[in-house]
Amino acid sequence: MQAVILAAGESSRFWPLNEKHKSLFKIFGKTLLWYTVFGLLRSGIKEIIIVQNEKKTVEKEIKKFFPFLKFVVQKKPLGTGDAVLKAERFLKKPFFVLNAERVDSFFFLPKIKEAFKKKRGILLLGCLTERPWEFGVFKLKGDKVLDVIEKPKKGREPSRWQTTGLYFFPLDFLSYLKKVPCHPYSLMHAISLYAKEKGAFLVKTLKKMFFLKYPWDLFYYLDFIFSHYFKEKISPDVFISRKARIEGKIFAEKNCKILDNVFLKGFCYLGENSFLDQGVVLEGKNNFETRNFIGSGSQIINSIFQDDCKVQSSFVSHSILAENCQLSKNVVLNPRARAKKNFFAIVKGKKEEILFKKFGCAIGKNSLLADNVFVEKGVLIGSNVKINSFKRVKENILDETFFI
After folding, report:
1. Which domain holds residue 303?
2. CATH code, 197
3. Cβ–Cβ under 8 Å, residues 352 and 333
4. CA geometry: angle at 9 spanning 5 and 12, to 5°?
5. Which one of 2, 227, 260, 300 is most buried, counting C-beta atoms within 10 A?
6. What angle in degrees, to the nearest 10, is found between the helix axes of 32-42 and 218-229?
7. How far apart are CA 283 and CA 372, in angstroms?
């Protein structure tokens, strides 16, 4: 069997963390795409084709770990159907299609393989949802798929079984994909056509699944990766003060330093050359990629930092910092105030409900927050932003903004 990984999309809803494809975001020292590829390999699927955009940043990032992967380019974002057709020249047998951030695929692939022995046709993994109007959902007769309805009107959903971005196709499905007009939903249209003429079947899972649309969805990935890959390890050259208090588990890469009176409760990943200054307090699951500096007296709760971030005596809770962000003294990201029942952020000019109620904020790369900046819950701050001292940030700030 073969697999096609879709990694060419624009990731526009992932702003302000979408400078590159969202599957290249790192947790526990690896990109999300790395975990997806690894999951396929551990399931016995070794012929893998990745569809990327013309920047080829995906190939540059992942090929050093898996040099045997094949890559194709989708020059324009014309939808998943067009992306699959770009891989046609490499496809010689039945194949899986999955999104690049489907890090949990190894849970479901054996069940789909087993179903393939009994039923010939398309196999589609589905899970239950309480919000079917937000997804593609299946019209069913038993386990037979009659149609796929994209984002049906609320109250008119044919079922609560949603698409999951994990599909298994016979090789002749490609000819059906060529029959339908190019469209953002052409993959679904081709599935519907094939289902009517040859048959498609739902493989159901009751396991709760997660999807990467918005920045706050990363916290579900943090939980999953820490639960399935985290192991305690401290490299030989790591310095940990005898006065540091470690009441959790830590994975510290080369040349990290943990100074006096650091208090760690929970789980912490420290990438190479990271530094925890005196009196730093860490709670929950915290992820610091390479060369992070957390200054004296800072308190960090359940947050995700990419490479080269620097924090001085600040409070950060359930927030995400992209590469090379700097927080000066007494910055507060996500105060301890309880979230409202209906909690929203503005994404692409549209009000989107934040289902992860503890979410604080997300900051794009190369941004600087000066002393005593206070950022309220649900705010998104773009890349290359500078915020002057004593500002209270209540609304999103676009890329390349100087907020004085």
Report:
1. 232-403
2. 3.90.550.10
3. no
4. 140
5. 300
6. 50
7. 22
Domain membership flag for residue 185:
yes
The token pair at 110 is 């054996």
Number of other CB atoms surrounding residue 233 within 10 Å: 12
The pTM of the full predicted model, rounded to 2 decimals, is 0.94
Q: What is the pLDDT of residue 118?
A: 83
Total domains in the chain come to: 2
Distance (Å, whole) CA 47 – CA 286: 34
At 265-281, the pLDDT tens digits run 999 999 999 999 999 99
